[in-house]
Amino acid sequence: MDGCMTELVLFTAVLALLGLLWWLVESSDDDNGGGGLMQPVLVPVPVRRYRQGS
After folding, report:
1. CB under 8 Å to 27, separation ≥6 — which residues?
2. pLDDT > 90: what percent of the chain?
3. Minimal CA–CA distance to 10: which of 18, 52, 49?
4. Are 29 and 37 in contact (CB under 8 A)?
5. CB 2 within 8 A of CB 9
């Protein structure tokens, strides 16, 4: 009976580890697959070259 419980816990741990590994590989943002973090967009900001009012 005790060996059966040990096998069940070990099997659950291996299954959880494989699931975590698969999730980390699938959600990687290094492959440009559309998921994960997006690249920042540069927006032009107008700059005044001369001071006004002095």
Report:
1. 35, 36
2. 31
3. 18
4. yes
5. no
